[in-house]
Give the backbone structure.
Amino acid sequence: MDNKLVLDGELKALSLDWAEKIYNSIYRAVSDPTQGMTPDTVKIYSDLKEWGWFEIIDIDDVQAHEILLKILAMHRYKQLLQNKINPRKSKWEKVVGKSNKRL
């Protein structure tokens, strides 16, 4: 099997899990005002609200769940893929220009 396909599948699974957690957090907070959201979730909720997603679809709808899940997962997948292709450099690598790990 092609390594890229395996990697894509892993990233997609991670992205979908993350998106499900975010959606559930938003759903709980909207359904029950006593529930809170993490700052990251609040930012995502604010972005969705500013773009008018909650005017178009009802968060209680099954199709809304599927649509928002795919949107959130796509965004997360792109982030994970970018980080995999171009991993962030450590502070040491930024200053010295090479990894401090001995080979």
Summary: The chain has five helices and no strands. Residues 34-86 form one domain. Helices lie at 3-31, 39-50, 53-56, 62-85, 91-96. The radius of gyration is 18 Å.
